[in-house]
Design brief:
Length: about 375
């Protein structure tokens, strides 16, 4: 063995013994102060804390060449609010025709969807109650002249009897003109429509028995109709009772129907965050039918809105976030609220941003990934 080889072996043994005693794993071939595995650091992004201010993401200049910034501007929303609604009867113009006696339907003269006019015969009802009431009326009417020649008490009694008999017939649904025309008591009575309108429900069947309170017909008028539409809650501040509106339908695309906002719902749907408005619309020619759909344009005050590209939004869990330029390649992650907007590729921000601010609109997902990585999270 040569002298040089022996010295090399001794040096290696000496290094091994020294490391074992000190408890370190070092190499005698490395220069002093060097580390075998230096710690890994994120060379692209890091977090910058601003004390009481927001936490910022610091990016190296040019780290994301595809990243672009969009400057927010205020756009004026149009003075028209578009929505869709469904047509229904105005329930203040719908009347139920009920039976006020127990009896049997002898004849039916109108059917569902027929248009009836006030005073038009609609059915014949058999009931001994009618005959009893008519007989009492005729008896009081016949006794009145005889009692009229007596004293004041007799005259008052005769008048009271006649008024009571007349009132009883009125409570049975007999019109004053029909009462005056009564010549003899009969168990059959012709019922007449109390209002003009369209028969929207028919429960009257020939030969069926009826009881007091049974609904025979529902009659509604279509002179004015309701259109119930949904609006988003962020549009509520623009809608007022009495605002003018226009409605169009696919059935009559060339016709425009005019109306006003009549009622605004006091509650909001917690799922869709919408509420209903009820509009009263004139219906010339009765063209608008219940259950039809209509496009509505409500005339509302114009106002400013902030609009930004959709690719600048990040949705996580149940909220939207954007990255706002804070200068010097630093970005603030900010939560925002988004409203409805009808321009493709853009969204309307209702809360969280101001005109003049710049937001990341390109490579937004990469910036979001770096944000989570800087927090030691997985996005």
């Amino acid at each position: 063995m040569s002298i040089r080889r022996a010295m090399s072996i001794r040096l290696a043994l000496l290094c091994g013994m020294t490391a074992a005693v000190a408890g370190f794993d070092i190499s005698c071939d490395q220069p002093r102060g060097a580390q075998a595995n230096p710690p890994q650091q994120n060379a692209i992004a890091m977090l910058e804390h601003q004390g009481q201010g927001p936490e910022l993401l610091q990016l190296q200049p040019g780290a994301l060449p595809d990243m672009t910034l969009y400057t927010l501007r205020a756009f004026q929303l149009p003075g028209v609010l578009d929505t869709t609604g469904q047509i229904a009867f105005d329930d203040r113009r719908v009347a139920n025709i009920i039976s006020r006696v127990a009896g049997r339907i002898e004849d039916v003269r109108v059917s569902q969807w027929d248009f009836v006019r006030r005073g038009q015969p609609i059915l014949t009802l058999y009931s001994p109650d009618f005959m009893t009431a008519e007989a009492e009326y005729l008896q009081a009417k016949a006794a009145a002249p005889a009692l009229a020649g007596g004293g004041p008490d007799e005259r008052q009694f005769a008048q009271s009897m006649l008024e009571a008999a007349t009132r009883k017939l009125e409570l049975l649904g007999i019109e004053p003109a029909q009462i005056k025309a009564i010549k003899s008591a009969a168990p059959s009575f012709v019922m007449r429509a109390p209002v003009s309108g369209t028969v929207v429900q028919n429960q009257a069947l020939r030969g069926s028995a009826v009881n007091p309170g049974d609904v025979l017909y529902s009659v509604g008028t279509l002179d004015d109709v309701w259109i119930t539409a949904d609006i988003y809650e962020d549009e509520l501040a623009r809608v007022r009772v009495g605002q003018r509106l226009q409605a169009v339908t696919t059935a009559y695309p060339g016709d425009v129907f005019y109306g006003t906002v009549d009622r605004i719902s006091p509650t909001i749907d917690p799922t869709s965050h919408t509420l209903q408005v009820r509009c009263r619309v004139s219906n010339p020619g009765h063209k608008l039918k219940p259950q039809m759909l209509a496009q509505i344009k409500i005339m509302v005050p114009a106002r400013d809105a902030i609009v930004m590209p959709l690719d600048g939004l990040v949705f996580e869990t149940d909220a939207y976030f954007v990255y706002v330029d804070a200068g010097s390649d630093r970005f603030e992650r900010r939560r925002v609220t988004v409203g409805s907007w009808n321009q493709q590729g853009y969204a309307r921000v209702t809360r969280g941003l101001r005109p003049g601010e710049r937001v990341v609109s390109g490579a937004t997902m990469q910036v979001n990934e770096l944000w989570h990585e800087a927090h030691g999270e997985r996005s």
